[in-house]
Specification:
- The chain is an all-alpha fold.
- It has a domain at 22-64.
- The chain is built from 2 helices and no strands.
- The protein has helices at 2-18, 26-63.
- The termini are far apart.
């Protein structure tokens, strides 16, 4: 029974804390989502180019 009271108190306290959270607005969520996607694509392109250049360099070294 003590575990049930502890669990109940935990849920109540957690619910109270959720009311203190400052949730982002829809505009902030959209901006941050676009930013994450743009950074991810930029990093993917950069790493792809680095891989391509390194592969070309190694091919020239290994073949010659």
């Amino acid at each position: 029974m003590a575990n049930l009271n502890t669990l109940s108190q935990y849920v109540k306290d957690s619910w109270k804390e959720l009311h203190h959270v400052s949730w982002p607005t829809k505009t902030e969520i959209k901006k941050h989502t676009i930013l994450v996607i743009a950074i991810s694509l930029g990093l993917a392109i950069f790493l792809g180019l680095c891989d391509y250049v390194i592969t070309l360099g190694l091919d020239k070294i290994i073949i010659k």
